Structures are given as C-alpha cells and as structure tokens.
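Justification of computing resources. Each target in the renewal requires a structure prediction run like the one illustrated here; the chain below, 730 residues long, is used simply to show the kind of job we budget for.
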Amino acid sequence: MGKHCYGVILDAGSSGSRVYIYRWLNAQAARATGDATALASLPEIKTKKKWNKKVHPGISTFGTKPERVGPDHLKDLVNFAQEHVPKDEVENTPIFLLATAGMRLLPDEQRTAVLEEICAYFQRTTQFQLPDCGLHVQVIPGETEGLYGWIAANYLLGGFDVPERHDHGKGHHTYGFLDMGGASAPLAFAPNATEAERHAEDLKLLRLRRVGGEAVEYRVFVTTWLGFGANEARRRYVQGLLEAYPDGTLELPDPCLPVGLKVNQTGYELVPGSPELVGVKPYLVGTGAFPECLRRTYPLLEKERACVDVPCLLNGQHTPAIDFDVNHFVGVSEYWHTTHEVFAMAHKDKAYDFHTYQKQVTDFCSREWRDIVKDVGSQKWGKKVDEKTMEEVCFKASWLINMLHDGIGVPRVGLEPVKDNSSNKTKAMLDKAADRGFLDPFQAVDKIDGTEVSWTLGKMVLYASSQMPAANQALAVGFGSNIAGEKLPSDFQYAGGKYEPLPTDLDDGHAEGGDDWHDRIFNGTYSRRVPGILIFVVILVLAIFLLCGRERRQSAYHKLLRRRSTPDTPRSRRRKAPGFLGSKFFGGSNSPTYERVLEAADPADDFELSDVEDLHSAPSSGGGPAPYRIGRSSGWATPVARGVSPDILRTSPSKNKLYFDTTSRGAAGGSAEKGLGITPFERGGGVSVMMRTESKERLAPRESMGRRSRAGSPTRRSPMLMAPFKESVD
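Resulting structure tokens:
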C-alpha cells in the first residue's frame, strides 16, 4: 500500500449515474508529514476534473432486466475507475454505489434485484473493496443525501477545520445546505443552541474523526421535501394550469414561458406545423409575465397544510426555527444553475442578491422567444446553455425564489434588512466574505476552491475520517439518532469501513495490534482472499493425496478401518466399505457393502478351514475354537486375499474357486500362516482370515456337523498346507 488512499463512489441518480474518484493521505503518511494544524483537521480529500464520468440512463430503468445493469450500464464506469486508480491500489480501494430518487420509486422486489445484481457484478469483475454489500450498495433516503451535502459544504468552506475564521456569532461556525434536484429538495443545518436543545430529538448525531484521532460531533437537522424538486414542481404547476381553464381550451396562456414559446404538457417545444398544434390536447403558450408566474407558483409550496409538530416551514413538515443571523446557507444543483448559468455568468463568486436577480429574470422572461433563440445560437450564455435550458429557466427561477424566501424564509437581500453581527471583523475580511456570499443568508455555489460541492464528497469525507486511528478510545465514525451518552444508537449508520493498520505497524515486535492478526485476516481486504486461499489448500491436499499411489491410500484406509472397528462393536455400528468414491481413491471394490464380521466356530457357521484348529495351541478367550474372521463382498473387482503372495494364490478360470499353490512357500520353516503368506489377525488367541471374493455368491451352509466334502479339491499333500475350497452357489 502506498501513501495515498483512494475511494470510488457512484452517484446513481434518476437520469444517469456518475462515478467520482477521490484520494487522500493514509493515516501514517498524514501524521508523519502533518503539523499541529493538519493533525487537528479532517483528512484532506483531493479529486480532479478528469476523475468523474457520467452515463445515461439511470439504473432504475433496469428494474425489469436487472441482469443487464452490469454490462449495459456499470461496465463503462467500472472500467473508467480502474483506469484512474493505480493498479496496485485497486484491492485497497472501497467502491460505493448510492442510489437516490429514481430507485426509490421502484417496487421493492425490482429494487432489491437491481441492487443484488450490482453487488454481484462488482464482485465478479473488479478487485475493489466490497466487504458489505448492504452498506456499499444501497438506496439512500433524501435525509442522508442532505446530510452528506452538509458535510461536503462545510468541509470545503472550512467550517470544520478552522471554525474561528467562520464565526457567525453565538458560537456558531457551520453552514446550512440546500439542494434541489428534479424530484426532491433537501435541507440540512445545525440549529442555534436554543433550538438545538428544544428539538434535540429531531436532530442527527454526526461523528467525524480528525487526522490526529480526535472525534468531533455535530447535531444536525435534516429534512427533504419530496415532490418539491424542479421537475416535480413543474408537473404540479402544469396540472394546476389545466384545471384553471375550461374544458376544451386548447391554447393555455402560461406566464412562466418567454413570449410566443409554445410547448406541450411535458415541456417540449411545438414548432410551426406540429400535429399537436391542431390536435385535441391542450398546449401552453408563453406570455412572459414573470410577476404573474411568481403568483401562480406560490400555492405549490402548500403552506396551508396543517402543521402537526410545530414549527413548520412548508408542506406541513416540521423544521426547527432557522436563525438567519447565524445560519448561512449554500445552495447547489438547481440553486446554482438557475441563478448563475444565465443571469450571473461573469460574477460566479458574487453573493445572491434577490433584488438584482428578480429584475434580471423579469427582463429576460418578457423577451420574444425568437430573439432568445438567436442569442443561444451565438452562444451569448456560453456553450453549455441550450434552448431547453432557456425554455425552463423562467419557471425554475420563480420556483427558486418562492422556495427560498416564502418557503424557507431566507431574507430578501437588497430589500429586507439583515442584521450585521460583524463589528469585530476587519473591513478586508468583510469585503472578501461578501464577494463569496458566505456571510449572507444564502449563496449559490457550484465549486469551492475548484472542487465541486457534491454530496458524494461528503460521503467520502465521512469514510476517510473513519480510516484515521482513534485516539483515547474515540467512538465509531458515522451518524444516527441524537442520543446522549457513549452508547451507539440502534440506527447508527457506519461510514463504510474501519481503520486497518498497515503492515509497518507490526514491525516493532507487533507492539500495536499484533494480537489481532487473525481477526484482520478475515476483515477488509483480507476477507476477499480467504476463498482463494482455501481453494488452493484443497487443491494442494488433493494433489498430494493422488501422488501417494493407490497402494498407500488403500493401506491407510484399512488401517483407519481397523482402528475404528473392534470385535465388540455391534453389527449396526461396524464400519462399512467405501462406496464409489472410496473405491476410486482407496482401491476398494464397488461393493455396496462390506462388513467385517466375526462368526463363532460352531456347526451353524457358513464354512470352516480344514484342520486350522491344529495349527494353534492358544485357545480362544471363550475356551472353544478360535473365531474366524471372514469377509463377504459382492464387488466386481479381482478377488484379493490380504497378505497372500501372488506366487501362492491362484484363481480358477471359473472365478468360483480359490487355490493355494502348493509348489511355493512364503517362508521356509515358519508357521503355517507364514508358509502360506497369510498375515494372521489374532484376537483372544484365535486365528482370523479375511478374504474378499469377486462374485455376489454366498458360501453354502454346511450340510452336516462334520467337515463337508469339496468336490474337485486337489489331494492334500501336506499337513502344513490347507486344502483349497470351493464356494457353492445357491
């Protein structure tokens, strides 16, 4: 691992997905090179303009075909990330995919299927860190999105690291955060001390960790107004416009469109000769009356809704009172695009001025549409501003003004007085801050010091701070319900990882973290290597096993059988011969069963060996003849008698007779067993001979109490040799 850490995060929105790559110094490098100020700050996150990429459409479009989300959507983003993250750092780099509004609208089963397929695709095709799919691949609620945005804004502005430079009065030094997307409008801020105490149960506890290991906590209120994003507000506005005119009216005057512009109900321009102009569906015609547009969009705030938990701002949703003397807000997304792309191109760092802004919008929207189109063609507002942007800007501007001032209550700078609590600041500082707008109640921003203010940055700041080793037993990094005490709330959301020391931490006699090496193996990056290690071990053991040879495997197996089976073992518990796999690996027959049994030498025995009793002087433990161990098998392999020399043992062509060659002896002058080459198994002084036959035939019972005649048996030549016998077939 190098001195830099990397993180990859995919913002899966409703219209598309964008991948962001971030980088920061690891704990060891940051602490080794940082001064006291750096140690008291959060990790420094870096990114580059070329480190992000967007693809269309959104992942929610794969609800009915989740198996295609990987190859058809994620592939380009993953490849892009792998190209920009150093190859030797990929396995140490976490990857997150956090989905927002579009995925929230999918049915539960479709949403689950898409998320599972995304996680599986990451695991199949990448080496990025993904220890917990539920944490790294998820649909986040609007409140979480707003909290991440709040972290990003305060991180970039310096509200966390140098609070003394951002003293807004009353000990308050953080900024509020406003966002407006297509479907929702999140808000996040830290209330003043009075409101924080009064509404403590409504706040989120956020815990971060500085480079030096010290934990810092914030209490933040977060909410989101669903249906109050720019696109959803426009849809509700058009619906109200249709209801305001009598049925049958085809041409509906719209004060929120430039003069002469005609669009259908979904907002697409209708050019002359369009079939929709002579159809039966109503369409909208711009009148360019912006004051009337403001009046028509005001009801969309739904401020008349009952407020069950006071106070409320709009839509009947509870929100603690905002003290704009100390709560200064930054707005991103539509707040930035609508105020700066057209109306403040040359003044991107200037504060939002309501009076100036409203005048600019009023003048623009009263223009003829054909003149606006000419200016777009000449790129008066830059290359990124197209006709579609100009079609929508009047409505969006009216909605933004109503949301900010009548909805949230931001003072109208330029018309309404704002308290000045800055008497203790120098004039130079005030002038600089005023240009940036950060001492005013509201300022729209896109980038701060060249870095985009994105909620994805806030998520990565949270994660990177969790990778800093904790000092003084600091609690976990993350957020959850605002509960006093050291106990984590039940809904606590971890940052997505925990700090894992580098191998260099173990050099000093394993002084730090050396005792938990086995835990780290199964966590983080190591956990992804465990399956491969296990597979390698299994293959290695199997290879050694096969190289041992058939004879050694067979010998080891039978030794194991003898160790586990005794003469006193009940029949039902006696070890049976190996099945198919056992026969292949240990050299046994394919017999379905093979029992090692002891039969007493009495007239009911199946068979006996002639004159064997005379070969042993030691009686059985029971005082009678020694028991004989016999084997039964229905296998198809060549019969084997264990311990019998191949020169002594012969099989008749019928495969039903087993003979001992009398012309050869296994050992001169030994006992009968040795002379036959048969290894005796003695239990209680008796002799047992284990034999296996190839056929499924059973030995016929004796017909009499005496020794049974065996037709065809060769003449006994020596008392030391046992006469061969023949198995009779039932």
